[in-house]
Amino acid sequence: MAKTGVFDADPAARAARATELKKELHRLVRIIADDEECGAEAIDQARDALLALRELRARRRSSFSLRTLACPEEYRCPISKELMRDPVIVATGQTYDRPSIQKWLKAGNRTCPQTQQVLSHTILTPNHLIRELILRWCKSRGVELSEPVHCIDEDSVTESERDRFLYLLEKMSSNISEQKEAAKELRSLTKRMPSFRALFGESPDAVTQLLSPLSERQSQNGTHLDLQEDVITTLLNLSIHDNNKKVVAEIPSVIPLLMDALRSGTIETRSNAAAALFTLSALDSNKTLIGKSGALKLLIDLLDEGHPLAMTDVASAIFNLCIIHENRGRAVRDGTVGVILDKIANRIHVDELLAILAMLSSHQRAIEEMCELEAVPCLLGVMRETSCARNKENCIAILHTICFSDRTKLKELREEENSHRTVSDLAKNGTSRAQRKANGILERLNRAINLTHTA
């Protein structure tokens, strides 16, 4: 899935955006005025440009009085770099201004901008404490903080949009040429317009109609790869909408067609099928449904192939699915441990894959496989090389479980300590969790040495 950069909300960027919107508005007004038969789409686009311009001007007015003040860094949104008016907390615990993080999420991003961690859900929780502190800070300086600028309700649907939606769905039951044309337009509309994503959630039949060309052609042993790519990507786009996740996943044809796309699509189709499974798995009930389907094995196979375009989406999907314990057993049985250790040994997507491996380390068979596959030197090597605190924490957590499960691995850890003092350094300088795990290993090593001396 195409990645989108963070919305740049500094004054220069807003001015450039306003100029761009005005030019677009002039163009659309000329079309509407000169062409008596202009489509409703041009009118809707002009309306969208006007609303966007109004929002930009509201943001400019509300921020003017604060520009000359040195705002504390913790009160600034990490995305817009401006004082937050409506601070909200995301799944990772980071705080952002609501309009900025909403733009980030609606662009299709599924990670926390600050930590780059995959978000387990996209619920935004008001941060009342930070909001109150910001209000007090403004009051002490004689500045009135304006009310939050609420985003336009992008889920509202015009009659022309609804008519276009129904028309395109009808074309999905037509000949192959019209199916391809409709699928391409639906892909574009569901990417740009949340309102089109919301329309699919109103009726499961709409999703079934969207997928009907793939279901029919699958039974006829022939799928047009370009049609499959557009349909699967549309399915991904509409699954981003939180209200669609349960409806979409429970349609009987959805997961089998995503699995078929993982097996036989273009690399972009396979990547987007993995991304769709990730977004759907935000719900625990969907995690169970997807796990039982056998999709994990296909995701692991794609991870093993190691295509750069697919790696992030596949790793995200596997991580999310393995949050529930029953899927960890499935992942281990399907060979995840060996695949991940091979990638980590080659320093491929270490951050994401270490997080999955740490999660799987709660499964006894996974630990046994790590011991068989000589995971200890690989993990120690990562610890020595990386500057990432989270990676060190995940490595030491896995090593802690290994050394308490297999005493023979203590020798490798003792040799590492003698040569590099890797565990001791982490016991002093790591995160609080890393320090606890490192100290646990050191205590285990000291106990083993004392027992040897006693004997």
Give your account of this protein's structure:
The chain is mainly α. Helices cover 69% and strands 2% of the residues. The chain has 24 helices and 3 strands. The chain has helices at residues 11-34, 40-64, 98-106, 128-140, 159-171, 176-192, 194-201, 204-219, 225-239, 245-249, 254-264, 267-280, 284-293, 295-305, 308-321, 325-333, 336-345, 350-360, 364-372, 375-385, 389-405, 410-420, 422-429, 432-454, and strands at residues 87-89, 95-97, 125-126. A 3-stranded antiparallel beta sheet has the order 2-1-3. The longest helix has 25 residues, at 40-64.
Record the SSE blueprint.
Elements: H1 11-34, H2 40-64, E1 87-89, E2 95-97, H3 98-106, E3 125-126, H4 128-140, H5 159-171, H6 176-192, H7 194-201, H8 204-219, H9 225-239, H10 245-249, H11 254-264, H12 267-280, H13 284-293, H14 295-305, H15 308-321, H16 325-333, H17 336-345, H18 350-360, H19 364-372, H20 375-385, H21 389-405, H22 410-420, H23 422-429, H24 432-454
Antiparallel strand pairs: 1-2, 1-3
Helix pairs in contact: 1-2, 5-6, 6-7, 6-9, 8-9, 9-12, 11-12, 11-14, 12-15, 14-15, 14-17, 15-18, 17-18, 18-21, 19-21, 20-21, 20-22, 21-24, 23-24
